[in-house]
Amino acid sequence: MEVSHAEEGISADGGSSWSQWQLNLSTKYQQCLDKSTPYTLWRWLSVVAIALIYGIRVYYLEGFYIVTYGLGIYLLNQLLGFLSPQVDPESEGPTLPSKGTDEFKPFIRRLPEFKFWYVVLSCPLFVSHNIHILLFLLPEIIYTLDSWEVNKLCFHVSRASSRVA
Predict the structure, then answer these.
(1) Transmembrane segments in this chain: where (predicted)?
(2) Of the candidates 123, 107, 150, which has an alpha carbon nearest to the alpha carbon of residue 47?
(3) Of 3-12, 16-25, 52-61, 125-134, which gets the smallest average pLDDT?
(4) What is the DSSP letter of 94?
(5) 87 closest CA partner among 73, 66, 108, 102
(6) Crossing angle for the helix pair 113-130 and 65-83, nearest 10 degrees?
(7) Is 53 helix (H, G, I), strand (E, B) or coil?
(8) Nearest residue to 74 (alpha-carbon basis) of 111, 44, 24
(9) Closest Cα partner for 81 from 118, 108, 110, 106?
(10) Which of 17, 56, 70, 82 has the fewest CB atoms within 10 Å, measured from its CB?
(11) pTM for the whole structure
């Protein structure tokens, strides 16, 4: 019995239908990003909306504060990269032209605005997806336990591991 290429999940050019689907999806995603480039105000308004939704969600869940703290530190690091120059002016010397042949070097950011926007947009989406995973709530549970409960928890874990061994 002969099996056609379509039944095997292989396209006529030799690639799988899954890789073709991924290629189409990534192409459409890149096109959407390219189309959004000139709309700076709307891009940043979408970031504010997503950040508000994330903040309200964390407030109502009453948890994931440590994850949110980590997100804040990462976004602060990205903000510093956005505000920092690509070349350190102290190590390069004077930045203004001193001769007629010298060129003026404008302020070039270490992290361009579009990449900064993309990181600031994607991080809350990624973290809000991970909020569904209760494993990320574990550090807050351990943090809120008092020392007696932590010792009791460690005792039960050590007893259970000694039984297994």
Answers:
(1) 41-59, 66-84, 116-138
(2) 123
(3) 3-12
(4) -
(5) 108
(6) 170
(7) helix
(8) 111
(9) 110
(10) 56
(11) 0.61
